[in-house]
Each structure stands twice: as C-alpha cells, then as structure tokens.
Amino acid sequence: MFGEVEHELELHVPASEAWDLFGGLAIGKLVEKEMPEKFQKVELIEGDGGVGTILKLTFTPGVPGPTSLNEKFIKIDAEKRIKEVEVVEGGYLDLGFTLYRIRLEVIEKGEESSIMKTTIEYEVKEEEEVDASLLSIKPLANIIEVGKNYLIRTRATKEAK
C-alpha cells in the first residue's frame, strides 16, 4: 500500500531565509534544542548537509512511535528549494514500512513571505498492519511550526538592532 499526506504553512519570511533553515542541517540542530520533549538527540552520522548526509534522530523516551531512526538526504535542489529525506535504518522501517520519505518544499509567496509544503510518502507491505497514527503529518507540521517561530524571532531580533 502506497500513500502520502501533505501539509502547508505560511512562514511570513522570505523563501531564502526559510531555505537557509530547512535546506540543510540547521533544522535538526533547532529541533534538538527547542523540542526536547520529542527529540533527545539529533546526530550527524555522515556528510556535511548535502545529498548523502545521514542523521540519527533519537526520540525522547515515552514519545509514541520509533525510538530512533536514521534518515538520509536523498535530494537537495537549492534552486527549486526542495529537500527530500528518506528513512534508511530503524524507525518506521522496523514498524512495517518499506518506504518513509519526507519532502520539504519552500515556495516563494512574495518578497516577504513563503509557504512550506511538506509531504510524507510511505509504502507498507500489504500484509503488514501499521499504527495509523504513524501516518500523521502532525509531528512534521509541529517541526515546521517551530522553524517558523524561530525564523520570525530571529528576523525581529535583527530588525530591532
């Protein structure tokens, strides 16, 4: 069974600023710092933030779902502002998924605003039963919201100086 879920959120910052946060490693560092209730640790296993980079995400004990997973950056298109990451070890793969891919796309809305479109693509073996809550876009939407708030705070701080 193949499926996908999507979410869009207006960020109220220029697309270039949003891409600077979401297009590389910065978002991983931010969620580790600002979401300790969800993320115990985000570790760089391999790479420098480009295609082929592998991160290990360790979730805080008690968070529903996997305890950890490794994700690999499989596509980064700075011109189109698209980043795709795929779970390559542990996590959702241990829970019956054969594919769990996240696509982040920063869409320019104007000089001072952009939209973050997030998509989760997944595949599950027909014979597997998977907890439907794992197919929710809500945890990813929460990460995007944390990023949005950070971008707005950072921008306000710069403008105040």
TrEMBL record:
UniProt keyword Metal-binding present: no
Record-level GO cellular component terms: cytoplasm; nucleus
Parts of the chain that traverse the membrane: none
Entry's Gene Ontology molecular function annotations: abscisic acid binding; protein phosphatase inhibitor activity; signaling receptor activity
Signal peptide feature range: none
Domain Bet v I/Major latex protein residues, every copy: 3-129
SUPFAM superfamilies: Bet v1-like
InterPro entries to which the protein is assigned, alphabetical: Bet_v_I/MLP, Plant_def-hormone_signal, START-like_dom_sf
Gene3D superfamilies, per the entry: 3.30.530.20
Any single GO BP term: defense response
UniProt keyword list: Alkaloid metabolism
Record family assignment: Belongs to the BetVI family.
Descriptive protein name: Bet v I/Major latex protein domain-containing protein
Native species: Trifolium subterraneum (Subterranean clover)
Lineage: Eukaryota, Viridiplantae, Streptophyta, Embryophyta, Tracheophyta
